[in-house]
Structures are given as structure tokens and as C-alpha cells.
Amino acid sequence: MDDDIVEFSIAHNRKYSTNHLWYQEKDDRLMIGVSEYLAVEHGEVLRVVLPQTGLEVEEFGADMFSIWTTDEKLSFPSPFSGQIAEVNGEVEINPDIVNESAYDQGWIILLDPHEIDLETLLEPDEYIEYISEL
């Protein structure tokens, strides 16, 4: 069987989780989105289900948001407790933005974390190493 070559990009000014989310600090908040690799692993994003602004999330408790891909529905719990400060309503209306601009216009939520420990997340090179082992 031939190995398929898959192309995707990684933004280097962010941290990553093993469930293919990216996190970027922005004015004491965390901007969160899905990596381009998520589409490789789980299929193209077809639908984004956003939470309500102001929702309190617990560390690894209720989901921050969920997405439907061509393969399955995925839910994403937060690695931090906090409050949903803002949602990107554009991705709910047009989920192709997530597929076309994952690291820019395709962000999903802004989380106002109660405490932040980004050391639990992967650096870009660690994330690349992680996905190369999948």
C-alpha cells in the first residue's frame, strides 16, 4: 500500500492539544480553534456548534464546543476552567471558514481562563512529532 502524502500547515505562534485544537494567548484570554490536521484525521468541518457567551466551563468538564466533520461529530472539553468570553458566529454560519482559514478567520472561541498553565499543551514542534506518530 502506498503512503499518502498529506499537506497541512501548523501555525508556530500557538500551542496545541492532542485533540487537534490550537490555543493562542490574546490579551489575557485564549483564542481557540482547530488545527488544519483535524480535517486530515477526522474529515472536513461541515458544522460548528458554538456555546453561549458567558458559559462557565470546568477543566475537562462540559464541552467548550463541538463540530461535525465528514466522518463524525467531535466534542471538545476545555483543558482549563474559565468563561466563554466570545464566540466566532461566522464559523457557525459558514463552517468552510474553519477549513480555509483555520489559524486566522476560522477561530472558534475566546476563553477567559480562571487559571492558565500552557505547559500542559504542546509546542508546535511537539505537536508535529505527535501527529507524525499517529
Main traits of this protein?
134 residues, alpha+beta, OB fold (Dihydrolipoamide Acetyltransferase, E2P), six-stranded antiparallel beta sheet, three-stranded antiparallel beta sheet, 4 helices, 9 strands, globular
Short account of what is shown:
The protein has 134 residues and is α+β, with helices and mostly antiparallel strands. 19% of the residues lie in helices and 33% in strands.
Structural write-up:
With 134 residues, the protein is an alpha+beta fold. It has one domain (17-120): OB fold (Dihydrolipoamide Acetyltransferase, E2P) (Beta Barrel). Helices cover 19% and strands 33% of the residues. The protein has helices at 37-42, 89-93, 96-100, 124-132; strands at residues 15-16, 21-26, 29-34, 45-49, 56-57, 63-69, 73-77, 82-87, 109-113. The strands form two sheets. A six-stranded antiparallel β-sheet has the order 1-2-3-9-8-5, with no helix packed on it. A three-stranded antiparallel β-sheet has the order 4-6-7. The model has no long low-confidence stretch (mean pLDDT 89).
